[in-house]
Amino acid sequence: MTNSIDELMDSGAIFITGSNTTEGHPVIGAKIRRAKAKGTKIIVAEPRKIELAADADVFLQITPGTNIALYNGMMSYIISEGLQAAEYIKERTENYDELVATLADFTPEKAAEICGVSAEDIKSAARMYAQAPKAAIVYAMGVTQHTTGTEGVMTLSNLALLCGNIGIESGGINPLRGQNNVQGACDMGGLPGTYPAYQSVANPEIKAKFEKAWGVELSDKVGLTLTEIVHKAGHGDIKVLYIMGENPMVSDPDLHHVEEALKNTEFLIVQDIFLTETAQLADVVLPAASFAEKDGTFSNTERRVQRVRKAIKPVGNCKPDWQILMDLLNKLGIEKRYASAEEVFNEITTVTPSYGGISYERLEELGSLQWPCPTPDHAGTKFLHSGKVARGLGLFKPAVYKPSAELPDADYPYIMTTGRVLYHYHTRTMTGKVDGLNKLSPASFVEINPALAEKLGVTDGEMVAVSTRRGQIEVAAKVTAKLKENVIFMPFHFAVGAANVLTNTALDPIAKIPEYKVCAASVKKI
Amino acid sequence: MSNCQEKQKCESQQGFPETLFRELDAFIETLPTKEGHLITVLHKAQSLFGYLPEEIQQYVADALNLPVVQVYGVISFYTFFTQIPKGKNPIAVCMGTACFVKGANKVVDALKQQLQVEIGEVTPDGVFSIDCLRCVGACALAPVVMVGEKVYANVTADQVKDIIADFS
Amino acid sequence: MAKIKSLAELQKKRDELQAVAAKTKNEKVIVNVSLATCGIASGGKEVMEAMKQEAAALGINNVEFTMSGCMTYCFAEPTVEITLPGKEPVVFGYIKGDKAKELVSKYIKSGELVDGVIPASYERIVF
Amino acid sequence: MSMLTITIDGQAVEMPAGSTILAAAKKVGIDIPTLCQLDMEKQFNQQSAACRICVVEIEKRRNLAPACATSIMDGMVIKTDSQRVIEARKTVLHLMLSDHPLDCLTCEKAGACKLQDLCYQYGIEVSDYPGLRNDYPLDASNEFYTRDLNKCVACRRCVQVCTNFQSTKAIAFGDRGFTTHPVAPFDKGMSDSTCVSCGNCVSVCPVGALLSKSKEKFRSWEVSKVKTTCSYCGVGCQMNLLAKENKVVGVEPMDGASNSSLLCVKGKYGFNFINHPDRLKTPLIRKNGELVEATWDEAYGLIADKVKATKAEYGNDALAGLTSARVTNEENYLFQKLVRAGFGTNNVDHCARL
Amino acid sequence: MVDKNQLRIATRNTGFIDPESVESYIAVGGYQALGKCLAEMKPADVIDLMKNSGLRGRGGAGFPTGVKWGFAAKYASDTKYVVCNADEGDPGAFMDRAVLEGDPHNVLEAMAIGGYAIGGNKGTIYIRAEYPLAIARLKLAIQQAKDMGLLGDNIMGTDFSFDIELKYGAGAFVCGEETALIASMEGNRGEPYTKPPFPAEAGYWDKPTIVNNVETLANIPAIIMKGADWFSGIGTETSKGTKVFCICGKINNVGLIEVPMGTSLKTVIYDVGGGIPDGKEFKAVQTGGPSGGALTYKDLDAPIDYENLVARQSMMGSGGMIVMDEDDCMVAVAKFFLDFTMDETCGKCTPCRIGSKRIYEILDKITIGQGTEADLEKLRSLSHNIKDTALCGLGQTMPNPVLSTMRVFEDEYRAHVIDKKCPAGVCADLLEFTVVEEKCVGCTLCARVCPVNCISGKPKEVHVIDQAACIKCGACLDKCKFDAIIKQ
Fold first, then answer.
1. CB of D351 within 8 A of CB of A492?
2. What is the mean pLDDT of chain A?
3. Residue D315 contacts A where some CB pair is shorter than 8 Å
4. Among D32, D48, D81, where does a domain finish?
């Protein structure tokens, strides 16, 4: 997030798109609703009539995969009405002309046709966003999990820049990170192209810095992304694969393909707290401690670094991940013993500029710090790009709407989209072990519109077969008016009736993110 | 289309005629805002449907975009609102101070005995119900009994039989 | 109805209305029935109706019937105020049964007082 | 903001305008008991001020005033411990206790119950004003908590948190007079409401009216409390883990910058996986197609050998690692260090995108 | 023979003009006061005039109206509200209904004056749904006034605009309390909240709001027209003008009266009210309704004003006066009021929610002969503490009927708890109906009317009442022609 969660409560308008916030990030959802109660305008653009739709001043029930068209339609209207932040654009951005040119003949009416909503609603959403003194954009995987995911984010960034909402309090563009420490995993260099703090592996100076810090020679070749790793493993080109705390056997797209790839890997190491679907395929399984059994830090979606503290001893013979990793590093000849997680953190701060000023001591005292926090006397950063954006001038990078990789046709006439439910988390490794949560959400399902249900002769709770070009599963139908007639929805949490048997592996060319949010499917009564 | 109208596609559970719902919709349309008019709408709904069962509470909640529990909370606070149907001839005894000192409680006892129901209840045949009212503001006529719109003044316990007979 | 556009217009309107009222008072019998909630509950409307009928029956046609709110004599409802031309108004209470007709046939017709007169025990602010 | 000076129990206190008497007293170390006061409400006039336990005496005012909901005025002279105040508080407690079961011996809330603490503090054993008590059936229809309205003191914190902070609005106050109580729609069970089981109401209930269902019985004084960060979504809610005999038995929200004392159903109630019997407790190595238990040394040895051999035979880029968005920063750091420095490749990624 | 004990200001038009005719109101000088304010006075002048008149709120608490208006005028806001509290809740009071039914324009005019004075242009009348006639006449009056340009946009050609809407109560006494009333007007449960902030600062929809009662408003046009000096010349040192009372109960001339402040209770009861019927003895008069207290023969000469009533542990209240005679038991009366408040407490704060129930229970115990002397002490201390701790006016005054009756009629309470007797012969459980042997002629009438057949005896012989079976209905006493049955 460019801004902080609590800043939302002082926003004039919040534009929520591609996020079912009250289920995916319930506490932020609650805060958005509190903002609404305090007078903030709410705009929601989602394929489903999510809970927040009821709080929305404008609700745009868009067809999955058409969000870029929507944002462009809003921008074209803003420009045509002269609602853009002219002064801000002049002083703090560049490439505005290209945006204007790109949107030249893209009217809200055209957007409305593509998105399946009314042009009037697009206009009022645009007005609401542009006229609020401070407006925030909140989004999640509903924007990114498309073949045009990166362009979707850039288009939102264009919208925010157009209205002068980047670099101000209570504005910004704010991705909600799905997992507790996805921010931290990225910050810490869990990415093929960057060391901690997004320092490029291809930069010789950076490489030299890390070689010195770690005492080994390092590669300057950008590594493979997850999907590429899986793909290569499928061809037998990855011999050793070490998977820590992940369950690609449920979370990745086109699971049949994943299973094949993992089985094709010569030596698979899986480190987890349960014997997950993935761990069952491993050659070595390492038992890890849960978050309750170890010390450390997580970085949340608003770049806030907070402590994790040990409440109980590791169960059985398991060990905290950091100890296992330290042991293996030692075995591989990188001799360094850390007496505690804090010692690891201290090493991090020496090579990670944005974390440079953070220490366990300060966290103890302050509760949390938001990076960038370069020095021990720095108070942390509440919102980014204050005064000017990090790169100097805010860059407009216009994109045009492109249809999703797979569109409905005669054989697969419906658009399938996926998402979360409140009561489960990701692949249910944890929530699946909680009785109450399982009772409230016991099994996979597919949501279909009442009219579609009638057409299929299906009633609520009846089993149906959902199929795509990649596979077929049988799940119970949930008949709900939340969806438009040609759209179906499935949660991705469940291993039985797994949505990701069906999803498309098509990737965003830049971020390599799979297009979970749109594929063509058919539904049949069993 | 609002939620409530969607729901109205289905039949009313209690078998209320659809025209009443339409009339309520039309009334809500005339309000300057939805905000702050819950009680106003409940008054209208009760005048249309006679009482406010769960179905109507849910309908009003949806129409005003309010949580139904808030509607219930309001209804259960105010004595004017009733969640059970009244008798065909609702009997209301004023229990203001003037009526009290003039013996309204004896009238109530007589009514209860005569109709064999308690305060707030309806006779099994649905013909009468008894309620106690706070002052109706006609203290000179104490004790006052109202049956529907009809007002009986200076009522004594032995007149109760005749009053009931007027409606039987 | 024409809108009143100034204080002067309002004052003019008042003067006009007062003049009409004064004229009526000199020419007609004015019967004012107390029709607040208790008056109505005590049968005020029936009283007015009975008096109208009786007046018609007796061929008395210079009676103007009006209504008002509570006359404050709750103990004596229904109450009727009768102003004979050129005379002070008199309030009669306890108008039950044939009393209404009696008011017409006696007091209105011939100025003969009937019982139930309630003396005014107040001073009233006018401006 | 202008500063005002007031006198509390003879001590002068300077506070900014808009502060409550409660805050002013706290500043000089004077304890005023509270019950319905909700810390989450930052504005004094949002407090329900319903319980009346925090009343204090203000010079020149006719009635006692609730310290939690009364803002200070310059020159105010306040007494928090006069006979009049003590009597008033005792009366309030007597009244509360008169409509409350005396089952502290078996009540799960014992030891953490505000009413119990206050009665102890003011020396109240039984109510001076016994009378009819409300009688409600126990509502156990929610999966995670029970609702026993017989223990409810009508403080309104549950409704406040559900309405103003959680914004779910599953509950409200119903009825009037003596039977005024929190209700789900139509006064039915919680399972008939829009409740999302976030448990925030349970966390703020000062008495035993709302209690988490628990597999493990524990007394409040038996558990250790450790503050940590929730391990579910990216919000980073702060919470205390309650542990007894090396088991996590409960969770309570803490006031973190991102969660402001709220949690969701997963954070509050999704902790049973920690001590689940299916937890992996020892390393496993595949032998003859089966995963069998092994020692750490065996596992480490096997991995080190295999890594070294693969590097030698196929080159570093035949190795890859997937780190995790679930583990700590320290662990992510060490993992990419392991892949980069130990495996010698940049083939490291994680499922940020999934 | 006309005695002029009454002075009618607030009720000057009721009974005289046709409430359904705006011309009828204009003919008696209606809307002149509003016109005068708009044409000749600045808002501050209006407030000063109100302050100088000494008019105090007639809803009960007696807060100076001009001061209240001054507060609301002080706060800057784009919207301000004038609220007319017509939720007449006091059982036994109906002056607001009488004014609204008899002279609705008077109230509308006063609200517009209030709006002009504070700088607001929205008015709301919160009225009991149980007053259909008043509602109908108000609606008609609002329409008429709008049609004539006396309400609505650009009143009388000026740039002042003022609109009035109606909101209905739904049967909750507590909504007479201004913060509860505002909560109710916003469509919520009528639960009061802690002041400050006062409505004058943040009231209806959090905007500056003045809440004035019907009778208060009904005085205002007259004050504007006749001046502050005229008004402050009426009444007592601290209480100016007149007060409308509804006298009812055991009194001959039940009805509505308006007397200058400072009139003695004796004048009200005997001169205006015509004394007690059936030659019974005057015992007490309850003023202030459930929030007030009982005045007795000791108080007959006291001039009625705000301060004097409070000094006698009663209060002005909205003006209900329930007269009681020797047949009324003061414990039962206190119990009646507590029964009322116990039902009407909103249930928000502990002292009121549980305390009212407990006071009621103790009183009930006393009336059925199970009370003890310790209970009297409990009553006193509980009552004092509830007054001290309750959230709103309702709770703070709820124990008044108990405290005031205990003060004046302690003997009666003691008779209940010590002798187990009800001196007034009201509390059934403490009564005994017995046959006076000397007087009984054995006519059998009593035995025949007894609903539980507990009277036995042969014709022409003395009858006997079986005390164990007797339900104390009093039917035998009423029927006996020989005064042979006594109640004690």
1. no
2. 92
3. no
4. D81
* Domains contained in chain B, number: 2
Distance CA D249, CA A458 (A): 43
Q: Which domain holds residue B123?
A: 89-165
Three-class DSSP category at E212: strand
Q: Would you say residue B83 lies in a domain?
A: no
Q: Supply the pLDDT for residue B8.
A: 45
- Which of D49, D50, D95 lies nearest to residue E358, judging by beta carbons? D95
Assign E44 to helix, strand or coil.
Answer: helix
Q: Does D168 touch chain A (CB under 8 A)?
A: yes
DSSP helix/strand/coil, A271: strand
CA D298 – CA A286 distance, rounded (Å)? 11
Helix (H, G, I), strand (E, B) or coil at D195: coil
**Chains touching chain A at 3 or more Cβ pairs under 8 angstroms?**
D
CB contact under 8 A, C41 and B137: no
Contact residues on chain D for B69, CB-CB shorter than 8 A: 169-172, 174, 183-185, 193-194
Cα–Cα distance, E384 to E366 (Å, whole number) = 19
Tell whether E226 lies on the interface with D, counting CB pairs under 8 A.
no
| Residue D337 forms contact with E (CB below 8 Å) | no
Q: Please answer yes or no on whether B141 and C75 come within 8 Å at the CB atom.
A: no
Residue D338, domain extent: 284-353
CB E393 within 8 A of CB E329: no
Among D63, D98, D160, most E C-beta atoms within 10 A, so best to mutate, is: D63
For strands C29-34 and B145-147, give the pairing. Answer: unpaired
DSSP A272: E
Tell me the mean pLDDT in the region A246-274. Answer: 85
pLDDT at D186 over 90: yes
Whether the CB of B70 is below 8 Å from some CB of chain D: the reply is: yes
Ordered by where they begin, the domains of chain A are 5-176 (3.40.228.10), 182-370 (3.40.50.740), 414-525 (2.40.40.20)
Residue C125 placed within a domain: no
Average pLDDT of span D12-22: 94
Closest CA in chain D for residue E382: D91
Neighbours of chain B (3+ CB pairs under 8 A): C, D, E
Nearest CA in chain B to D190: B69
Distance CA A280, CA D280 (A): 12
Closest partner residue to B72 (CB to CB) among D174, D176, D194 is D174
Instruction: Please name each of the domains of chain E with its CATH number.
Output: 22-232 (3.40.50.11540), 242-325 (3.10.20.600), 330-419 (1.20.1440.230), 432-487 (3.30.70.20)
pLDDT in tens, D151-175: 999 999 999 999 999 999 999 999 9
- Please tell me the predicted confidence (pLDDT) of residue A504: 85
Residues of B in contact with D184 (CB under 8 A): 69
Helix H segments across A286-397? 321-331, 341-351, 360-366
Q: Do chains D and A touch (3 or more CB pairs under 8 A)?
A: yes
- The whole-model pTM stands at 0.92
H helices present in A132-236, as ranges: 141-144, 149-162, 182-187, 204-214, 226-234
Parallel, antiparallel, or unpaired: how do β-strands A414-419 and A487-491 relate?
A: parallel
Question: For E9-37, what is each residue's pLDDT tens digit?
Answer: 999 999 999 999 999 999 999 999 999 99
Q: How many domains, chain D?
A: 3
Chain E environment of B98 (Cβ under 8 Å): 91-92, 248-249, 254, 322
For residue D193, give the nearest of B57, B69, B73 by CB distance.
B69
Contacts of E133 in chain C (CB under 8 A): 36-37, 40
D297 shares a domain with D272: no
Tokens of E42: 């600045």
CA separation for the pair C71, C90 (Å, rounded): 12
- Most distant CA pair in chain D: distance in Å? 91
